[in-house]
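Suppose a colleague, Dr. K., hands you the sequence of a protein chain of 253 amino acids and asks what its three-dimensional shape might be. Before reaching for any lab equipment, you can write down a predicted structure in token form. Begin with the sequence itself:
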Amino acid sequence: MSSKMLAGKVIAVTGAARGIARGTAIYLAERGAILSLSDILEKELEELANEITSRYPDVRLLASVIDIADGDKVDEWVKKTVAEFGSLHGAVNFAGIFHSKTEHFVDIKDEDWHRIMAVNLTGTMFCMRSEIAVMEKGGSIVNASSTAGLMAGPGFVAYAASKAAIISLTRSAAKEIGAQQIRVNALAPAGIVTPMFHQLFDDGIVNEMVITPNALNRDGHVEEVAPLIAFLLGDESRYITGEIIKVDGGMLC
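The predicted structure, expressed as tokens, is then:
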């Protein structure tokens, strides 16, 4: 991919303050994209915005603090993005949350189930709905699923169910809006070193899970995911839609 293949493209990124989305935002800025970043974590989002504008002074950037579980706020953010930059060409919907602890199926609390679904699934739907509505000349959306949405595992059923549903959401949207030249794909990462990854170990959650070793026998890094997202956002992938791409070091191969 050319270093400036995304120059002039307006890209919205949710969950931008941390993890894969954060690294992707920096990668997109380096490649000339115009960025509309959002997250619920105000301080960390501000720090990211400052880092990007310091490293890439010419990058146009909008940073908005929102909870994607609030559909009205999502719609306001997307409309503000278009008002600020004139259009929306792509979106990286990576905001998401995990369980605070592993729970057996019969012990799942209503509030935990509803919150995870509200953010991971319904929040992603809210983002897609608002993004698609303003993509008048086509576009590309990349959603965050997970290998947890492709395989069974004990102790985190709400998260797994939300990520499995995103796979169906992605494919259904791709089929419905393909004629508008809007492409929708999703990534299914696993073992990527992020703050959430570290938190799972610190809280002892990972140790309670059934961990499947990957073929590469190592962890993955954000820098190994961001280029794929950028590729899916760009014109070089214009014949790819409805795909769920595993980024797991061969864990499920």
